[in-house]
Amino acid sequence: MNDKILILDFGSQFTQLIARRIRELNVYCEIQPCTKPVPANDPTLKGIILSGSPFSVNDPKAPKPDIAAIGAIAPTLCVCYGAQLLAVQGGAEVGQSSHREYGRAHLQDVQHDPLFATIANGSQVWMSHSDTIKALPQGFSLLAHTESIPVAAYKASAAFAPNPVYGIQFHPEVTHSTDGGQLLKNFIVDICGCTQDWTPAAFITETVAKIKAQVGDGKVVMALSGGVDSTVAAMLINKAIGDKLYCIFVDNGLLRKDEFQQVLDGYKHLGLNTKGVDAHERFYAELDGVADPEKKRKIIGRLFIEVFHEEAVSLKEVSFLGQGTIYPDVIESMSVHGPSATIKSHHNVGGLPEIMHLSLVEPLRALFKDEVRRVGREMGIDEIFIGRHPFPGPGLGIRILGPVSAEKVKMLQEADAIYIQHLRDSGWYHKVWQAGAILLPVQSVGVMGDERTYEFTCALRAVTSVDGMTADFSHLPHELLGKISNDIINRVRGINRVVYDISSKPPATIEWE
After folding, report:
1. What are the start-end ranges of the H helices in 5-137?
2. pLDDT tens column, 215-228
3. CA distance linking residue 479 with residue 490, whole number of Å
């Protein structure tokens, strides 16, 4: 078993980023709500990190777990809110700063301590807090301050907890903290004693063994989408149980141009036992005249479950359902604030385990998206799957604003194919996290030759991101956008205007519906 760091989530926007930075050190970590007890007898647990929080420690409703008890289990690093909570529980006062400290600051009078090994005075850190620690509890040791605040980093006394317990007022996980990665390494490797052996190769070996133990002589059925998550999950299961994995790829008529056959051919090359099901007419019939995006999502999701279920029940002696669930999905369902409010329905095979009385096999539930790609590359999976942009489960159904029809799908498929090919040819495809064309329910006057036209508008969307949680629009060159627009208007009958979306997430979402 790999060594583990546990992150207690107090609702910080940076909690997932802490996890990512730790995993970049090839050390496994998990996130759990701060309201959940820390396991006291886990031999793999080597260290604990308390995240920041939107709460103030002086808020009566703020979460306040016993840090001394946590520090009795393993070395503990308290970040931002965690540092303030540690100070209060040590007997000090935390109050509102004379001014909110947000942004860059520089550490001063950095003390010799394992946490700050090789980190010098003047190191830039990133602050984000309105409360501040007025003074340290008795017996605690100051490790650094900044020009603005008297306590930027400190260590609890040996009397507070048997293991080292640190508080830092800044965020080491963000890139603006120039030595933040080194500080995390100092804590995780040197203070906690973690072995840096959580690699893609090690993950594959361990996961395949777990799948074999879980499934035994059983059989697994799984829906594939052509995306990286389901493909890598299927390959891991296939590596464990071979042809006892049965894959189903449903054509809902809302895929990209020629994607159904291309993906089936790719899965055949990978050696996956896959059946393609053409159900596009069934989807088009039920979507006819439906404009509300939430209704469209629910129809597409329901029909997918129905088609998949019909195909799966024809298989004999299947007792497991494979899914490409990844770690952000798991975190979302156990947020410190409870499950997030529904922004939009997500399209997956939710409900199928109960309907079919199947046990879940989820080999990727511990990984972030970029880690899934690393595992896929380690397994030798072709870049056509690994490097593929994320694509929404409802497909073009939510990229056609308003009612869906076969004519609109064909129009959008052609425009999207032109767009994506230009991105590939120009070298921009792999610089972009996700790109796609959207058909708007807006018609405008145009002129083609000597004729006036009254045709649809196509919007282009391209964003940069790490995991899709936040995103910025991609700054595609104007010359490239001009070529794409010209090609779409000239080659796709029914579109006479092309626009480019320059919204970021938040406040906008990546998809329009």
Report:
1. 15-23, 67-71, 81-89
2. 999 999 999 989 99
3. 17
Q: How far is residue 507 from each of residues 102, 148, 250, 469, 470, measured CA to CA in Å?
A: 21, 32, 33, 12, 9
Residues belonging to the active site = 80, 171, 173
- Shortest CA distance to 369 belongs to which of 272, 469, 447? 469
Q: What is the pLDDT of residues 331-372, one digit of tens each?
A: 766 554 433 333 344 444 455 556 667 899 999 998 988 899
CATH dotted code for 200-386: 3.40.50.620
* pLDDT per residue as tens digits for the range 45-102: 999 999 988 888 888 888 999 999 999 999 999 999 999 999 999 999 887 765 555 6
Nearest 5 degrees, angle CA 277-CA 279-CA 285?
175
| pLDDT of amino acid 454 | 82
Looking at the DSSP bridge assignments, the partners of residue 452 are 447
d(CA 283, CA 287): 6
Domain chopping of the chain, boundaries: 4-191, 200-386, 406-500
Q: Please indicate whether the domains covering 4-191 and 200-386 agree at the CATH topology level.
A: yes
CATH architecture of 406-500: 2-Layer Sandwich (3.30)
E-assigned strands of 145-272?
A: 153-155, 165-168, 219-224, 245-251
Strand pairing category for 451-464 and 472-473: antiparallel
Confirm or reject CATH 3.40.50.880 for domain 4-191, answering yes or no.
yes
